[in-house]
Amino acid sequence: QVQLVESGGGLVQAGGSLRLSCAASGRTFSSYVMGWFRRAPGKEREFVVSITWSGGTTYGSDSMKGRFTISRDNAKNTVYLQMNSLKPEDTAVYFCAGRTGMVWSNWGQGTQVTVSS
After folding, report:
1. Is 12 in a helix, a strand, or coil?
2. What are the Cα distances from residue 81, in Å, to 42, 45, 113?
């Protein structure tokens, strides 16, 4: 099991950038598929992007693929989400998650991202 702690959220103007980090504890981090989800006010949780141990990525939508970049540093047990060209509709709580099978079994507490217009 790994425990996940996100950081890097905050308030940014539209068009700006933020980089979220997710620090994982545990020796098996590299075996986990890591991902980012978000939940906007009044909406369901949404899959943003995931990354395998070897760097393969899957994006939730084409609009995210062009603006968001996921990466991981297995030596530092950390996964990152670089978000560029942010829009007000990107405002949400962003969660880091991990899985070894098909189910996302490990979750962080979330970090708030607010994009002002």
Report:
1. strand
2. 23, 17, 12
For residues 89 and 79, what is the distance between their CA atoms, to the nearest angstrom? 23
CB atoms within 10 A of CB 79: 28
Locus of tokens 């970090």: 111
Q: How far apart, in Å, are the Cα atoms of 51 and each of 14, 42, 62, 68, 94?
A: 26, 27, 16, 12, 16
pLDDT in tens, 29-83: 888 999 999 999 999 999 999 999 899 999 998 888 889 999 999 999 999 999 9
Confidence band (pLDDT; 50, 70, 90) for 107? very high
Spatial separation of the C-alpha atoms in residues 103 and 97, rounded to whole Å: 10
Non-local CB neighbours of 33 within 8 Å, separated by 6+ positions: 50, 51, 52, 53, 98, 99, 100
Please say whether the beta carbons of 8 and 108 come within 8 A.
no
The yes-or-no verdict on residue 100 having pLDDT over 80 is yes
